[in-house]
Structure formats: C-alpha cells, structure tokens
Design brief:
single chain, two-stranded antiparallel sheet, about 250 residues, mainly alpha, 8 helices
C-alpha cells in the first residue's frame, strides 16, 4: 500500500544547478554529462598510451629495417626523406627546359595577341565608344594653310558623307553606284557589336596579363641561372618587373 501511494504522489524533479553569479567569470559549470564525456575521452587515451608502452617494452631491440636510415626525429618531429636530391647538372637542365617551354608559350601568346589586335581594327568606332583606350586617328598632310582650311574630307576619301565616320566598310562612290548598300544600322546590331567589342577587349587584357606573368617567370629563370655563375656580385636595384638586378665584379682572365 505504501509503495503504490509513493508512486502516485507527484515528486519534485531535482535539476543540476547552474553557475553561481559570483563565479560566472570562471565559465559554465560542468554538468554530469560533460564530465562523462571528458572522463571517457581521458580513459581512452590512457588505454592507448598503455598499449603503446607495452608494445615498445616487448619490442625486439635488435630488430632492423631500412627506414631507420632514411628517417630521423628533430625536436620531436618525425622527418622522412621522400625524394632523393637531384644533381646540380640535372637541375640546370630542367630549368633550361622550363625556360624554353615558357618562351614557346610566349611566342604563341604574342601571335594570338597580334591577331586579336588586328581584328579589333575592323570593329566600328563611329557609333560605339572604345572603352578606355586611345581612338585611332587618320591624319592627312597638306602643303599650305589655305589647303587645310578648304580641305574636304568627303572629296578626299571619295565616299558618301554618311560613311565618313567609319573606319572600315567605307566604299567609294563608284562602288556605291554599282551595288546597293544599306548604310543604316539598327539598335540591336549596334548593341551586338558593342558586346563583341567588350568581349574582345577583355580577352586582350587577360592575354596581356598572362604575357606579363610569362615574362616575369622567364626573367626569374634567367636570374637563377646567372646566380649559379662564379664571381662576386652586388645588388644594384630592381627592374620594371620587380625582380632584383645584380652586377658582377669584373674578373680579369689569366
């Protein structure tokens, strides 16, 4: 009877208290679940250490394997030689091959840049502004000031007045008489031409940056090759690429 009554009566749930106000600077008060996790982690580490000590205790001191020669410990850190050091001649050969490869890539990049620049000259500059670059100019020389004042661009170029502003596709009057040519451009065509121009100029800018990086890499390889030469040298400054410039002391040959 007493047991059943004890189960019926509602009892108070006892909870773990939190950190006291005067000890808040010490951080959160550790609960039982936190202590259990910390204790399990500590005991697992102790068991592993004990197992390693036993393994080292019962190990054969006369045992040998070849990694003992290629490995060592320095300040408690395990150091292992992964690759054998290459001879100096082989290192120089590899660097010379790298230089030749960079030079080949630079030549390919220069040809692509020249081809891209040539294609940009064929884009119309009359209706579309050239982004942040110098505009091309067509200079005509005359003999006297009177000829300069009375100079007629339409008569000189022998074309229609509507086509004077064009840098390309500017046919002469005889050609216009023979063929019918639509000189007007729609807004969609101008927009498409502007988009094509912007893409080409972005590509040209990226290729210029790549050319600068390849030039710097080639220059670094040249400096490394020169540094291996004998003689006393002194740093005299920095070049345009930000790389050091050295001067070797003149050594008289005997």
């Amino acid at each position: 009877m007493s047991t059943s009554l004890r189960n019926v009566v509602q009892r108070r749930n006892h909870k773990e208290r939190g950190q006291l106000a005067g000890r808040e600077k010490l951080g959160l008060l550790e609960k039982k679940k936190d202590y259990l996790l910390r204790a399990r982690d500590y005991h697992s580490k102790q068991k592993r250490l004990k197992a390693l000590r036993e393994k080292a205790l019962f190990r054969n001191p006369d045992e040998f394997y070849f990694k003992m020669i290629n490995t060592s410990t320095k300040n408690g850190v395990h150091i292992q030689k992964r690759n054998e050091e290459l001879p100096h001649e082989m290192v120089q050969l590899l660097k010379s091959q790298d230089k030749n490869y960079i030079k080949m890539q630079r030549d390919i990049s220069k040809k692509k840049m020249e081809k891209l620049q040539d294609s940009l000259h064929f884009l119309d500059e009359g209706e579309i502004e050239k982004p942040k670059t110098r505009r091309n100019k067509h200079i005509v020389f005359v003999d006297t000031e009177d000829q300069a004042k009375s100079f007629d661009v339409v008569k000189h170029l022998d074309t229609a007045p509507e086509l004077v502003h064009r840098k390309f596709n500017r046919p002469r009057i005889d050609t216009l008489k023979q063929t019918s040519l639509d000189t007007t451009m729609t807004k969609e065509e101008i927009k498409e031409m502007k988009r094509a121009r912007e893409m080409k100029y972005k590509e040209l800018q990226s290729r210029k940056e790549r050319e600068k990086g390849l030039k710097r890499a080639e220059r670094e390889l040249e400096i490394q090759k020169a540094m291996n030469a004998k003689g006393e040298r002194k740093k005299i400054g920095v070049d345009k690429l930000g790389l050091p410039v050295y001067k070797w002391k003149a050594d008289r040959k005997r």
